[in-house]
Amino acid sequence: MPPKLCALCSTARAIIRRPKTGQQICKDCFFWVFETEIHNTITHAQLFRPGDRVAIGASGGKDSTVLAYIMKTLNDRYQYGLELFLLSIDEGIKGYRDDSLETVKRNEVQYGLPLKILSYDELYGWTMDRIVEKVGRKNNCTFCGVFRRQALDRGAASLGVDHIVTGHNADDIAETVLMNIMRGDIARLGRCTQICTQGEDTIRRSKPFKYAYEKEIVMYAYFKKLDYFSTECIYSPDAYRGHARAFLKDLEAARPSAIIDIIHSGEAFEVADEVKKKLPRLCKRCGYIASNDLCKACTLLEGLERGAPSLGIKDRTRASAEDLPDHFRTIPQFHMPDTSQHKTVAPSTTPLTSDTLATTATSPS
Amino acid sequence: MTNLNPHKDEQDIIMPRRRAYDRTSTCVKCKLNPGNLVIQHSIYCRSCFFPLVSNKFCRALDQSLDLSSYMATIERARNVFIGFSGGSGSAVLLDLALQNCIVTPGASAPGRHHRASKQPPTKRRLVWKKAYVGFVDISGAFPDTNDRTSEIRTMMSRYPQYELVELRLEDAFDILWWRSLSKPLPATVTASVEPGSNSSRDVHSPTSLELLRTFLGSLPTPSAVSTSISHIIRLLLLHAAEARSCSHLLLGSTSTSLSISLISSVSSGGGFVLPSEREEIRRSVKIVKPLRDVTNKECAAWVHWSGLQVLQGGISLYEIRGVTQLTKDFIVGLDKNFPSTVSTISRTCAKLIPKAGTSGYCAFCQRSIQSGVEEWKARISIRSRQEPLPSTEHRVHPLCYSCHTAFNSKGSKGSGNEVQGTTAKFPVWVGSEELAVGEHKMMERHEMRVQLEEFLIQD
Question: Which of B:247-306 have CB within 8 Å of A?
Answer without folding.
Answer: 262-263, 265-272, 274
